[in-house]
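Subject: mismatched residue count in predicted assembly?

I count 548 residues in my input, but I want to confirm that the predicted structure covers every chain. Input:
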Amino acid sequence: MDDSVFYASISDLSARLRKREFSSQELTKAFCDRLEKLGPRYNALALPLREHAIRKAKDVDRDLKKERFRSPLQGIPYGAKDLLSFAGQPTAWGAAPFARQVLNEDATVIKKLDKLGAVLIGKLAMVELAGGPAYRFAAASATGPGLNPWDRTRWSGGSSSGSGSAVAAGLVGYALGSETSGSILTPSAFCGITGLRPTYGLVSRAGAMALSWTLDKIGPMARTAEDCGLILQAIAGKDGDDPGSAGKGYYYAPQYVRPFSEMTLGFHPSDWDTHADAAARPALQAALAAIRGLGFQVKEVEIPDFPYGPVISTILGGEAGSIFEDLIASGNVDKLADAKQIAGLKATQDILARDYLKAMRIRTLIRRAFQDLFYPVDILISPARNGIAGKVADPLDRPAPGSAAASGAPAPKSRGLQGLIPAANLAGLPALCLPCGFADKMPVAIQLVGRAFSENLLLAVGRQYQTQTDFHKQHPPVG
Amino acid sequence: MAIDLSRRELAAALAALASAAAPAAAQTTPTGTPAELLTQAKQAVERNHDALQRFKLDRAVEPATRYEA
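Triage response: the counts match. Full output below for your records.
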């Protein structure tokens, strides 16, 4: 099987399966071989599921032979972040204390994909407990630090680290990740893939590890915006098993969005010429120009002024402290890999109820402020991250060497849209990460953030951008 | 959905996960003793408390019960 298969889009693979260029079994075996051989190189693989995958692929081939077409995802191998339960197999949440945990029901998203004929070939590595409440080193995982396929001395990003590196290296057709505050966008940006954080409540979290009930989202990490749309259509929808479910479905229909010329793009110049690391600016600025060139009106906007860091830390910490109370009280928390994370989890027990409620009250204002911000603009655009992935051994709680933040230069006067990741997570807004070029041979990316449930608009812009660029088609030298 | 994966596969997976945990832990280099890190983490909670205290709110603002804008 030609190597190009491993980097093909879902539409392409689906068309070739239906034309019988290869069977789902052949495709699945090829991806399983690759995932099992190369996954450990990037610490991307938590659990291979070859036997299950081949059985499933056989079922799919029978369906395809009878022309029972269920979905574009039918027959295509994928990986799921190890925060999602798969019945009868270990679901370790990336954490040594849960290495022997076996759950008895599949996560809703895995059930949904299974019904459509998607082939789960492995659980993908992650930062332990999805990184909550904070961690200092990339090695905060039972499977070791997520290594970036573009440069294995650099981090893949987290907490969906295996999902990011496995897609980038062509080890899976696509992956599921999750985000509480940055865990889809960061590995997508660092690994040069397309990632979608859906609106809060659009995708069921039933069967997923909870880190923060009011912040957690599950979303696709894939090669293209279109792939993300097809996956989102498959996994979105009302679910009575998720109290946070918005009760809405999703149909991928980017063709029905209003013309871009009738819409306004919100941005701030300081994000692109001051906050961004110098090496990343050319690629980022070219991407901004390309998106503007799609015909949008533009407006300079700044992020509303709120203490996003303390608010999200208090909410996430308060909820994680309750969710993992037993882990902390039992002392098993000490088996985690990252000493800062251990200390951070213990310290969550000191968060006051009134601080949690104050943070949630400020969150009310943050929601309102974003509703106001989205009155005159339709999409916000900013760098997904200000620079490239850092070195694996570098502490994550300090500015990366060589970054704008570490340069000692005075802080920019404008806050621009800095802090958009925690802010938009607090407001439950969707975001699309699009690879847009390279700096020091490492990927850089932009993010588009829209109103709640505006995924089709974000994906329409992403799709159009990806017809004009080929950054999403570039892949690291793997083999 | 029927799951009947072999016990051998399950045992191998569990063993792999268990053995992976040790080297990962060894790679982490804490910058401080556990007690010092706990002190720092508690100080961070206090800093968040202080930042929230400085933010003045109208009494009528209720906690968020919807999480999407």
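DSSP finds 15 helices and 13 strands in chain A. Marking this ticket as 'not a bug'.
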